[in-house]
Structures are given as C-alpha cells and as structure tokens.
Amino acid sequence: MTGQRKRRSMKVAAGLAAVALTATACGGDDGGDDTNASGNGGSSSSCESVALGFIPSWTDGLSMAYLWQNVLEDKGYEVEFEEIADAAPLYAGLAGGDVDVYPSAWSEATHADYMEEYGDDIEDLGAWYGSARLTFAVPEYVDIESIADLADNADRFDGRIVGIEPGAGLTRITKEDVMPTYGLTDSYQLVESSTTAMLTELQAAVDAEEDIVVTLWRPFWANSEFPIKDLEDPEGALGEAEGLHTLARTGFGDDCSEVAELMEGFELTDDQYGSLENLVVNEYGEGQYEEAVEAFFEENPDVEESLKG
After folding, report:
1. What region does 287 belong to: left with phi over 0, alpha with psi -120 to 50, or beta?
2. Are residues 140 and 207 in the same domain?
3. Could you tell me the sign of the dihedral formed by the alpha carbons of 116, 121, 125, 128, in that order?
4. Which residues constitute the domain of residue 67?
5. Which of 8, 242, 246, 247 is 20 to 30 A off residue 261, Cα-Cα?
6. Burial of residue 155 (number of CB atoms within 10 Å: 0-12, 13-18, 19+)
C-alpha cells in the first residue's frame, strides 16, 4: 500500500468508526432539575429541555445534533440525544412527540413518503442547506461515467449495487425508480445493509482497485475521503437537489419559541457545512464531537455570532 493510500485509509477508518455507533441515548434526563432555561436570556416558554433525534450513521444529522447541543446548552437548555437506527422510527417518534427535533431531514424528496405519512404531526422549521442530492458512485479508476452504462456491465460489478439501510429513502428510490428506469432490475441486486457496511465494502474495493458501485449522497464526508466519482443520471431518476430541513414535533414552536426561532433562521453554505462535517467525522471523531464543534465555531465566528449573539 502506498503512503498516500495508507494515510487516506487511516482517515477513512476514523470516519467508519463514527458511523459505526449503535443506537443509544446520550445526555439523558436528570429528572429532578426544575431550573428554567436561562443562559443568554433563556426561554420565555415552559421549554427547559430539547430532545434531538438523529441517525448516527448519517453524519449530516450527527454533525447538526452536536452543533445544536453546543448552542442550546450555551443558552441554558438541557439537551437530550435520541439516536435511532432508521428513518421510519425517527419520523414516527417525531410525530408522536417522543423526539422534539430532527435537525437534518431529507423531507422534500428522499423522505417524502414519511412526510406523507407523518407530516400532519410535524412542524417544518425550514431548510438549513439547499443543495443536497442522492448519487450513485464508482471509484475514479472505473471507466464508466453514467448509470445508463451499468446495464451492459453487470458482470464487472458481480451484479451488485451496494446500498445502505433498508428504511432509507435512498434505498426506496434506488429500488422503485433508478433500477427500473435504467433496466437494472433483472441484472443487479441491491445489497441493503447499513452505511457502515457499504463504506467498508467501498474501502476494501478501492484498496484492491476492484470495480464497485455504491449508493451515496451529498453532502457526505466520504465523497472527499474516497477516490470516487458520481455517475451521471441522464434520466433524473435520483431526483433533483433538495434542502435539508429542521423538523419538529407539533407544538414545538409554541412550547420552545426561542429555540424554534433560532432554528428557523439558521443556514449553512457548502464551505461551512464541509468544515463542520470534516471536523466532526475526520479531524476529531468519536468521543470528541463536542470539541469538533468548538473548533468549527473558532473557524467560523460569523456562524457562532448568528446563533449565540
């Protein structure tokens, strides 16, 4: 293995560790704390704590959860984490009031079916990022440029498209839209596993310079840490770019008006989000997420000012 590849593999290993988290609850409820939120002005409502729900292997949600933990605790709120393994129970928990906020939802297209089912019991606090999109990707050394080229090259990929969690919107869209549109249903199997398993297979294939096609998305740290390229989607089967939204349970805007107003006005640019995710996943990693957010605010004082005043 070359020195460059070894260094890249070490950074990717740190990212794989980040997405290998199991479903746990962190920052739990102390139960006996009757102190009102204070900090920088506190809250004028009865809101004292905020439960943030996210899927830890999807690092946009992971990064945003720790960013909001930093901001809200600075303002005197108690923050609870509800780490959930898949999208369906996360949306159900949000609609049922078990989760207060899902801070990075692909609600416009990728999770549109969940919004159709649960949207009546969810408040949309707006999009914080506007250019998210789903992709198919192959290593840079693979001489295929389009999803349309996959049908005639199934043998090269052992008839496998390596996907992520069964409940992910990307998985549904791949099975229901992409594979039928490009005539891949009979010649390919979509391997439904997990984000961690997909990245592990991608790492092994890249190290061996073998052909592989995976389902991915942007923004996601793996796009810069692996030598991969997006395949063209001439039929638009993966859909258009969409926003990443902050969703809340019904009534959250009334119960936690200060928090809701903060979240409604929040946005990040490509560069700002890239900085956040890189620090959280690659530069600091598991066990140091809070330090990563502090480093992000040091690098982006304008964002800190907008959130903390």
Report:
1. left
2. yes
3. negative
4. 13-131+243-308
5. 242
6. exposed
